[in-house]
Design a protein that fits this description.
CATH topology of chain A: Farnesyl Diphosphate Synthase
Strand order of the largest sheet of chain A: 1-2
CATH architecture of chain A: Orthogonal Bundle
Shape of chain A: globular
Largest interface: A-B, 55 and 55 residues
Number of helices of chain A: 15
Oligomer: homodimer
Number of strands of chain A: 2
């Protein structure tokens, strides 16, 4: 399959849906909507929604049906970037080559834009109810699992641990916990959401969730490697920031070679898990392999 | 009825339920949970959950059934206070006589604690699904309406407008819009949620929502009056802050006497709407009357 064309097509699908959820101007509080829009359309890869759609496809589901959930996942991801970039957090001025939300607007607006995106994510999930008539319990299960993945038991907790770990020597086990919570949880939730809403059996959902876990960890290792080896222009951000911030990373703890080898092994294990799903899971396998060669 | 005893009993009920949702220590990211706990148990009146329970009662529902939604509303309210108090927003050091979250912890932790509470609110709403077997669509309707009330079309939008209005002369109509969004939307949503989950008919839900709108506006007027007339010790915060910040208020625009008269008239209209509900709505009427005499 042509992964590049597949990703472009899916990205366009997600972008159109997101545009529908968040028109450029609406209501009196236009400034916060403008800021939400600015960050939501800052050129993201749409990896989480694409994972969600591909997981639905892998169980024979209709990708269009899970589009609201896919958009919600991207909104949650974007909110987390806006808040993580704030001066009190990672204090980043640039994201994907453009000023971060608080630089483009101001801190108060950025905080509110993040809050607005997080809230809207849950609203559009619940608002998808008519598509799931008779399967409302499934939709509620998805809202619950996304909440768990995004909240203090997941992403928020991981960001807290990451901040607490800065400048401190941490163990390999601590590093794994941070990444499993900070980025892994939402990536895994994206796959699981697609599997559930796509109508997968419990066995299929279990397989795909396990794949999602391997994917999440592989993603983080390759993210750390990019920060060491990456090119500023391709990445749209400054490499070497982890080292400068004395952040714990896989290359720092394991070395680059071992990290790359481990990433390769992990995603291979994940791809093998998908065997029972046959050809329908091919996009998901390709997205997994792509992690090893990604440049941004 | 003895409103004081009623409120104390309901507050205790809500507090026990909240404790169950957020044990003092859980998981590895303890610091953010500690901060969430700190702000959630800072001595709030629990007005939104109590409104939600009273609305369920007013339609003959079981208050215990709507307790998860009541707790979710309080979590959302608490998150909004934490974020509003941040230096980039209202920059408040004290809340209910105690250091605000970012003063007690730090800014990053306070941002994350707010994010964590907002996310957890939606998670526990969805997690209440087993209580609503066969009525899952109703629960999804509630999640959607709370999301709309809390997000950019409601509370977040109101806070944005409030920040934009600071130090600027605004019209009476603008002031109403700010308050309808910033505080009114979530108060109205609290009443509507109780009415829906309590099993009210559509006619009852409409009546209670209209009451909630009057209640929300009355609440804001009496809040503004307290800032002019209130006692720092009883309020647990410094009065006169609105004037010092040149914030638009009802007393500033209408005068104190006219504001008080208008509040009295509004809540009276709201109470009259409740007539068809009979004695079951008495707690809600009493809570409405209490707005006129509240000291904090």
């Amino acid at each position: 399959m042509d992964l590049k064309a597949y990703l472009a097509e899916r990205r366009a699908l997600v972008n159109r849906a997101l545009e529908g959820y968040l028109p450029r101007v609406r209501g009196p509080a236009f400034r916060v909507v403008e800021a939400m829009h600015y960050s939501l359309f800052a050129g993201g890869k749409r990896l989480r929604p694409i994972l969600c759609l591909a997981a639905a496809e892998a169980v024979g589901g209709d990708p269009a049906e899970v589009l609201p959930a896919a958009c919600a996942l991207e909104m949650i991801h974007t909110y987390s970037l806006i808040h993580d970039d704030l001066p009190a957090m990672d204090d980043d001025d640039l994201r994907r080559g453009r000023p971060t939300c608080h630089k483009q607007f101001d801190e108060a607006t950025a905080i509110l834009a993040g809050d607005g995106l997080l809230t809207e994510a849950f609203r559009i999930l619940a608002d998808a109810a008519p598509r799931f008539e008779g399967r409302e319990a499934l939709l509620l299960e998805v809202i619950q699992l996304i909440g768990a993945a995004a909240g203090y038991q997941g992403m928020v907790g991981g960001q807290m641990l990451d901040l607490l770990a800065e400048g401190r020597q941490i163990t390999f086990k601590e590093l794994e916990t941070i990444h499993r919570l900070k980025t892994g949880a939402l990536l895994t939730a994206s796959v699981r959401t697609g599997a559930l809403l796509g109508g997968g059996t419990r066995a299929e959902v279990t397989i795909l969730t396990a794949f999602g876990e391997k994917f999440g960890l592989t993603f983080q290792i390759t993210d750390d490697l990019l920060d060491v080896e990456g090119d500023a222009a391709e990445m749209g951000k400054t490499p070497g920031m982890d080292a400068r911030r004395r952040k714990a990373t896989y290359p720092a703890l394991l070395g680059q070679e071992k990290s790359r080898e481990w990433a390769r092994q992990l995603i291979q294990e994940g791809i093998e898990l998908l065997a029972p799903l046959g050809a329908k899971a091919e996009p998901l396998r390709e997205i997994g392999r792509y992690l090893l060669s990604r440049r941004s």
